[in-house]
Each structure stands twice: as structure tokens, then as C-alpha cells.
Input
Amino acid sequence: MTTTVENPLRRESRLERTPQPTTIVIFGATGDLTHRKLLPALYNLEMDHHLPSSFSVVGFARRDWSDDKFREEMRSGIEQFSRRPLDPAVWETFCQKLHFLSSEFESCEGYERLNKLLTEKEQEHGIGSNVIYYLATQPSYYPTIIERLGEAELGGRNRKTEQGYTRLIIEKPFGHDLESARELNEQLHRVFSENQIYRIDHYLGKETVQNILMFRFANGIFEPIWDRRYVDHIQITAAESIGVEGRGRYYEESGALRDMVQSHLLQLLNLVAMEPPVSFEANAVRDEKVKVLRAIRPIRGNAVAEQVVRGQYAGGWVHSDHLQAYREESNVNRDSATETYVALKLFIDNWRWQGVPFYMRTGKELTKRVTEIAIQFKQPPHMLFGSEVQGGLEPNVLALRIQPDEGISLKVLVKTPGTRTSLRPVKMEFLYGTSFGTEPPEAYERLLLDCLLGDSTLFTRSDEVEASWAFITDILDAWEQMPPPDFPNYESGTWGPREADRLLYRDGREWRWP
Output
């Protein structure tokens, strides 16, 4: 008798889904996001044969470009920013799927021409039309575009098509505070149903971020100790070694709290702190994330001064290069009180995490670029070696490195060789690059493909957005009532203001040096 062993890779490939024929309409297609991220991501999906054979991209923007000009500009973006070199044969096929429609975002006539173009694509595909609208514009244009799509009956609730789907991808920032986020949700829901809306946060598309859930729930040795009984505290760091880089006008309206904490850092917090979902179906995962946000203890009034530190970078010297202060950046107020750094301590009031502090920090012009989550475990209850070991015992730390050098490390203590009792910390380390020998796809590749497939697991739901803004708005309201901070208060190339160190010193702890 002959036994046949099935190739698991072949079985996996049969289970992969292929998107239906689709047209993606990118509003703001002449902008930096499309040039650097969206078209290189779509090109790599084409390289990997993940796009349907009948597929097209329509760039919708104000510049007076032709199809050829649009294709020329997008080729330049792919050559510069694609994770793989441009293949002339693939590009020759891919570029024929790129089209451009020049129009003001307010112009009703432009949406009429868009409707006509989508009808042509529908006939070209020979089936019902599937369309994804991608809002890659400044947030101030979101309400106008949504309203015009509704008036032209191109929105999800009233689009005239016999079959097919309609979806909308909307970039952050999603609102400026709780009130504006609620208002934007109401505008969206007048034209699209919630299951058609994909609020995108590129952090959730990173391979290492997705792996947080797999690491937690697929390994039986970690989940039983992932709670207040064994965890002393958790640190989440998202540090950048660059300044605002010409984005002064945007940053003056945003600041680090809105730009990074409300979205990226709270997303990482959700994945670390959430309960096991009943399944990996989109709403089951997102239900648990919302529960975490609603369990965060509010930081209000005087507690903001005690638990939140804000900073702004001054000029400094890094590797013989002089870096200018934030207030010297273009399009920045010379007396600006906008924060470029935030550190905060928060608590999650639920059974798993009661009493465990979560420390989060993010900032620009810091020592290095790094994003990591560090879980520090409690010391053993009976210190057998305390009096015999010089320097004290270091705690076990599990570090999940998001970027760069993506990987996971676990610090443990071992005895050093010799006759004396001496313990030394060592790392058990896993690195994505060396372990798998391949470069992971870019975040936008995964997220665009998920939207094409109708999988909203890695996208943010309306109640999640509002819950995160409710927490952040309390801090913003308190800041408005406080005297303006004495900025700048940290030099470029450092780890931030000294007040952030004191935030942990008061608790007998200190920040990690990733």
C-alpha cells in the first residue's frame, strides 16, 4: 500500500482566497501616501499574484494629469519605495490598469464622470461592479468627499449596481477629539454601512504586530502567566529618531498624543491586554479590543499632571550634525506649545490587569528609532540568591520588537561557570529575518489585500475609535486648563524629558533602553 503525504504548502495555497474583480478609486492620488505606500503595495500584490485579473486603479485628484502622467509618476514611486525592484514585464501589464481622473473634490461633475468610468469598468469586467474608495487626502476633505459620493449615489447605501460590493478605506487621523470623531462617524453612516467602512492604521498591518496575538494564544506556556499575578508592569515604546520633517503644519494641529498615542500605542495596548476572542472572526477580535479601551481608568483633572508627561525637543548635536528645535521647523509657531513627546502611566480596571501599571512613551528626535513592547515579570516570591549575588537580581523581561530588527527576546538568569554562585542575565532571542529568510510584506500590502477580501479584522470599528478618543480627550481637556509647559524640555538625541524618568522612579522602576 502506498501512502501519499500531502505538501502542506500546496494545501495552504488551495485555501488562499482570490479577490473578486475590483476597481480602487484613490482620492488624493497625487499625494505622498499614494506615491510612497499605496501603489508600491499594489504593485507587490501584483508581483505575488494576489490581485484579480480584472483589476483597475482610478486616481482622483485636482492636478491636471493624464493617464500617462499618472503612470509615469507611479512608476517613479515604485522604483523608489517598493521592497522589490521593478520588473519591466510585470510593470507593462500593471500600468495598463492605472487611470486618472482630474477633478476638484467639491465638484459634482467630477463624481458624475467617476460614475461613468465605474460603469465602463463594470461592463469591461462583465460582472457586477466592485469598488473600493480610498481617502488618501487631508482629513479636512473627508466630509466633502463622503457627501459627494452620497449625492452621486456612489456610496454603499445607495449605489446603483445589481451586484458587487462597495467599501471605503479611510486614513487616520479619524477625528481630532471625541466630538469630531463622533461627527465623522455620523457622516460616514449616512452614506455607508459600518461593515463597508475600513478605518486603517498601518501599525496593525505589520507582521510583528499581528504576531502578538499568535504568540499569546498559540503558546500554552505564556497565556497562564499573562496577568496581574505574574506581571509587574508593561512598557510600550514608540521612539523616532527624526523630527517632523516638513510636516510642521499638520503636527501643530496634532501633536504626539493625537498622532501616536490615540492610534498606534493604544492599538498595541489592546493586543497585549485583550482577552482571548471566541474566534479570529473580525467582530470577535474587535469586541475584545473595545473591552480593553472601556476598562482603562480615565486620567482626568489633577491626575493628568501626575500620570502624563509631555515634552518638546530642543536643538542638539547628534553624530556631529546639528538638529534644529521643533520651534525652528517650517510652519511651526515660534512659541508653540505642541508636544513632540508623551509619556503616561495608565491602569486597566479588569480582573486580568487590576493594579498592573502600563507605561507608554512616544517621541520625536529621540536616541534611536524603535518600537517595542516589554513585559516585565515579578521577582520570585522567595529570593534564594539575593544575598549571594552582587548587583541584585534582574527581572525576567519578554520583549516584542515591532521595528526595526523585528523579533522576540526573553531575558532569563543563568549561573555563570565557576565555583562561585554568580548569576547573569542572558537572552533567548528570535529574529524574523534570520529565522524565515524572507522579507515580510509591507503593512499596506496586507491591509489592502484584506480589504479586497472583505476581512476587517485589522481595521478599526466605530466604537473602538470613539472609546480611544474618550480616553485621550480627557487628557486634552485637562491640558487646556493647565499653564503652558516650559518648552523645549529635552535635547534632540536623548530619551526625552527628565520628568518622564521620574514617572517611573516614583514607582521604584525605570525605563528600558531598547
User: Anything to note?
Assistant: The chain has 15 helices and 18 strands. Residues 1-15 have pLDDT under 50 and may be disordered.
